[in-house]
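Give me the fold.
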Amino acid sequence: MLLTAKFTQGSISEHIVKMALTNAIGLSVFFVVDLFDIYFISLLNQPHLVSAIGYALAILFFCSSFSIAMMIANSAVVAKSLGEKQNQDAKKIASTCILITLTSSLIITFTIFLNTSEILTLIGAIGEERTAALQYLNIIIFSFPIVAVAMQMTATLRALGKAKLAMFCMLMGGITNLIFTPLFIFYLPLSIEGVAWASFISRVVTLVFGSYYLLVKCQFKSRISFSDFKINTLKILHIAAPASLTQVVTPISHLYITYEMAKFGSDFVAGWTVISRIIPVAFIMLFAMPGSIGPIISQNLGANNVIRVKATLNHSLNLIIKYVFVLALTLSLLQDHLISLFNTHANATILLRFFCQYVSISFIFVAVNLVAMSFLNNIGRPKMASMLNVGKLLLGTIPLVSVCAYYYGAPGILVGQALSSIIFAIISMAICYQTLAKLNK
């Protein structure tokens, strides 16, 4: 199969839109499925089950963060090799990524499985919520190696410019989940365990399609020797190690917010669970954009085309800011429908309404942060991205959330999180443009 660095030519804005839309469609299936899982569970009128999924997802967030870090490394190194016209090296790097991911994900899986009860207790889960979360995690955690490898395959497909194939893999997995979840919950009935089994099956489907498209249709595979593995591992870890630190900050923030919410009662935890599932669905383009612009930046960097690298940053910021503004306005107008849809009560309703009315607009700065992190990772500055994200957690999120929670209660937690995003978005952008200026020189 003929491999070309397609992002080094043509319209930058068209490449960004195409990559972002296909990535968003693929991701949206999983995020929408998560949201539907919460909706189906809410129909059982057992609020503790919604809270249980919230606690479980906070833990699973760590697993996802590792997978995303490896995807960042995969995309950056493979795409850069393609930009340098080193196609065989790109194949060996992709194979090394898959091998590292499989080994590491197995270790993480068994570590979490053996300590699930203690972790749930640590983040504040008690009683029925803790029991239900334990049942869910004991099933879903064993699908982590499956989805981790599948994510590597879709990342490689995007690095090749095969965004539609990557999208289709995720679509098939998401549709499978959407079919099996209500079937398991209402007809078998398996309650929260049914949600876990449906997700497990969907991840297997994603892996099957990813393997077919990458290894069979694209023939993007290569045998690797021990020396190849050693050399490529160093290249990958140069980005993956700091990227892992960068990515792990998000689930730590999520865990800390869940911990603070738990102090105000299970109603607020349930409200936070709904909000945390609405966010990736409503702002899907935010989460699609970093993975979309990564291959574009890396291929042009490999081809020494700094002008196109700068254009990619500018176009992506312009698109994402406009998108968030429209979506924040839409959430504000639809808040009553969301409250009715998820059957929230009392404090959960207060928190959901507060988010839609006041906090959602702050995701403009979340978007800027995400684009900045992707830019720095792919431009060869992953350590700077890590420093910024760790700084945001330690100097922004934790102190601001704590102070705002003390003075303003549960809604103050969302305010603290928003203030942290605003401060560090400004800092991150200043560093990005400073880095571009150095590249020009």
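The chain has a mean pLDDT of 84.
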